[in-house]
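step 3/5: co-fold with adenosine-5'-triphosphate
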Amino acid sequence: MTFDIRNIRKSFEGTEVLKDVSMEIGTGEFVALLGPSGSGKTTLLNIVAGLQHPDSGTLSLDGEDITRLSAGARHFGMVFQSYALFRHMSVAENIGFGLKVMPRGSRPSRRQIAARVEELLEMIELPGLGERYPAQLSGGQRQRVAMARALAINPRLLLMDEPFSALDAQVRQSLRASVRDLQQKIGVAAILVTHDRAEAWALADRIAVMGEGRILQYDRPERLREAPASEAVRVLAADAS
Ligand SMILES: Nc1ncnc2c1ncn2[C@@H]1O[C@H](COP(=O)(O)OP(=O)(O)OP(=O)(O)O)[C@@H](O)[C@H]1O
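step 4/5: write tokens
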């Protein structure tokens, strides 16, 4: 799998917030978009998700141009704050949701959905909690369920926007480890938006350091430290551990 982001530009009301952004993501790769508030991370992720449209540039997955595909047709998994769990659905219904709404031709049977939900509950280490409702879970458990919901459809790409930011430090640490673990087990490539450099360093195979709508450097964490391309990256990498 190769996901290619090519020459993406996006303006809001005459202000360019993405200025010719290009990067590529390989099979099973975990990539972090790291940068200060307003640097364009969320806009880029929304464009990748199909929730916003670029003014110019292309997105392609294994050579297929997906720039104009709808969000649903992209078949990506999303863990965004704005996609909270459905409160009126049980944990199991939440996890199975993406499978249940598939078009009839590709939709798995009820039994298959139930089996997949059970498998994911095991993976997120919440077996037996399928009948609970989101309100009966801790914040960390809810995020695990959100992750399972995103992964249930076997997404072609997993997109996460600050998925840990509302959690306390200890829960965040343990969730980080399990997200990385799950992502590797499933083998799906992932893009994580974060402004937390420790998080980017702990999780990512490669980090795209963003500043003012551009990618300042896109490299392995150790390379960012050893060979920063600019003073801004050097300062950022020196502080991260
Ligand atoms: N719908 C919009 N209309 C107008 N301006 C917008 C819109 N969405 C984003 N912007 C502007 O685009 C710039 C980039 O925003 P974006 O949310 O992508 O940054 P970010 O790096 O994700 O920041 P944060 O970490 O605070 O979420 C900001 O200056 C923001 O004010």
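step 5/5: annotate
The beta strands are 3-12, 15-25, 30-34, 56-61, 64-65, 77-79, 158-161, 190-194, 206-211, 214-219.
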